[in-house]
Specification:
It is globular and about 45 Å long. The protein is of the alpha/beta class. The longest helix has 24 residues, at 109-132. It has helices at residues 13-25, 36-44, 63-73, 88-97, 109-132, and strands at residues 5-9, 29-33, 51-55, 79-83, 101-104. It is 49% helix and 17% strand. It has a five-stranded parallel beta sheet, with helices on both faces. The protein contains five helices and five strands.
């Protein structure tokens, strides 16, 4: 059984393929897209994902814009932002946008795996909490 379903978004096809291979070997089910528009369309069309892993800088939109759009349509879906251009200011902006985590490149695959596991667990607990709420609270 897969650890979770990951939507990886990066405008570099080779990076997507590398993430798919590496994360699949670690038990994740990975779907990838090379632009934010296609990734957002997938989420809005009802494709189920446990977490989104996105690059910060992409051609059609940046990862923060994608994070903001996903949070607007699926508020509970965690988004992890990865970038080679990491700074404290960018990390703070990512968190303010609603990103679950912020990872700098070059990244350690163990760190990415841990972040994905934490995000997926958080997402599962949020869904369970919502399901357990009484009808009056909904």
């Amino acid at each position: 059984m897969a650890r979770g379903r990951v939507l990886a978004v990066d405008d570099d096809r080779e990076s997507c393929e590398m993430l798919e291979e590496a994360l699949s070997l670690r038990g994740f089910s990975v779907v990838w897209r090379t632009n934010a528009s296609e990734a957002l369309a997938l989420t809005r069309e009802g494709a189920h994902f446990d977490v989104v892993l996105t690059d910060l800088r992409m051609g059609d939109a940046n990862g923060l814009e994608l994070c903001r759009a996903i949070k607007g349509s699926i508020p509970g879906l965690p988004v992890i932002v990865i970038t080679a251009f990491g700074s404290i200011q960018t990390a703070v902006e990512a968190r303010r946008t609603g990103a679950f985590d912020f990872i700098t490149k070059p990244f350690d695959l163990d760190i990415v795996t841990l972040s994905l596991e934490r995000a997926i667990r958080h997402h599962q607990l949020s869904l369970q909490h919502a399901a357990l709420r009484s009808p009056q609270e909904r």
